[in-house]
Amino acid sequence: MNTRMRRAAVAVAAGAMAVSLAACGSAKEAGDKTKETGAAAGDAIKVGLLLPENQTARYEKFDKPLIEKTVKELTGGKGEVVYANAKQDATTQNSQVDTMITNKVNVLIVDAVDSKAIAGSVKKAKEAGIPVVAYDRLAEGPIDAYTSFDNEEVGKVQGKALLEALGDKAKDGQIVMMNGSVTDPNAKLFKSGAHSVLDGKVNVGKEYDTVEWKPENANTNMAAALSALGKDKVIGVYSANDGMAGGIITALKAAGVTPLPPVTGQDAELAGVQRIVAGEQFMSVYKPYAPEAEAAAKMAVALAKGEKVTGVTTSTVDSPTTKGVPAVLIPVVSLTKNNIKDTVVKDGVYTVDEICTDKYAAACATLGLK
Q1: Rg of the chain on CA atoms, in Å
Q2: Chain CA centroid to CA 349, Å
Q3: Angle of helix 215-229 relative to helix 242-254, nearest 10 degrees?
Q4: In this predicted structure, which of 20-34, 38-52, 139-153, 347-361 has the lowest mean pLDDT?
Q5: pLDDT category of residue 61 using cuts at 50, 70 and 90
Q6: DSSP state, 320?
Q7: Chain-centre distance for alpha carbon 275
Q8: Calpha distance 316→327 (Å, rounded)
Q9: d(CA 243, CA 58)
Q10: Which of 138, 125, 147, 113 is nearest to 30 (CA)?
Q11: Is 205 in contact with 233 (CB distance < 8 Å)?
């Protein structure tokens, strides 16, 4: 983690208000039980880390190494992260939880493939005395803590950016909305946030919930939308993330749509940033992964030692099964061609050389990226 990213991460924890959290109902009871049964392992803890998939670049490039690094820092190098990736399979992830329980990890950090399907495994972990931190997606079941971004705000940021790009032509045609997977609770929040901004201000011609967030499914959906609406009638595309934006833009190009309409995104993936540089994608949502990862690691280490997480958390959230879950919600930034240098480059996520390969060199020069 570079200096700027570490400072940003530490600032989140340092700014946590020492308030009495309204952790009511089962969240409070689960927390008390963890205090009683959690392993007293000192710094030599085992943190189980379960991430949902490897198609989105962020998990392997940012989340995993950042969590590993922070756990090491917090435990004087004695803490161990045991990692598994479910590759978008909820059944596999449930089996991975079973393995973690068998291996007697002291705490779990879980980014659920399917927030409902994981609930039984979360309960099993808790019954084994293993506290659970829900990471990035709000898993159901008796979780002890949660960290993510303000996901409804993500959708609002995307919607506002699309309206900005459309300007006074917002009702001159139709937009296509490409939402994420229905198994991801975040997708519902992105969708809700976007609709709260877009409804009444644009005409939604077609809307899809994209199976497994897969770019190829978004590509197929976009091709179908263009066929149904007419390629000249689509004036913008709401895409919930960068991976799908790539599939959407491929479909637009294949249909001969020119100029390309504004397309949104999320995650500030390298390919997405390069498409923004090239003028193919209008924006992405930059989510600083360092503070999110550090918050998860801090909560996990505290819980593994039988301590409370109130020194880290700043708010509470409710899941469908658990009320008053202590949480850290990280703010997001709208990433466009105008602030690439001040966001992902400044924070050390990508270097200019990584973004400005030969293919994008001329576009980078125009934007002053050098």
Answers
A1: 21
A2: 15
A3: 40
A4: 20-34
A5: confident
A6: S
A7: 20
A8: 5
A9: 11
A10: 125
A11: yes
Report whether 246 contacts 178 (CB < 8 A): no
Residue (of 311, 299, 269) closest to 286 by Cα position = 269
The secondary structure of 237-251 as a DSSP string is EEESSHHHHHHHHHH
Edge-to-edge strand ranges of the sheet holding 80-85:
80-85, 46-51, 107-110, 132-135, 145-149, 325-330, 315-317
Length of the chain in residues, anyone? 370
Element (H, E) at 161: helix 151-166
Here the tokens at position 257 are 């749509």
Per-residue pLDDT at 27: 52
Other C-beta atoms lying within 10 Å of the C-beta of residue 127 = 12
Dihedral of alpha carbons 19, 20, 25, 31, sign: positive
In angstroms, rounded to a whole number, what is the distance separating the alpha carbons of residues 82 and 84? Answer: 7
Residue 342 Rama label (left phi>0; alpha psi -120 to 50; beta) = alpha
165 token code pair: 């790009």
**Cβ distance 277 to 360 under 8 Å?**
yes
Amino acid at 186: N
How crowded is residue 20: how many other Cβ atoms within 10 Å of its Cβ? 7
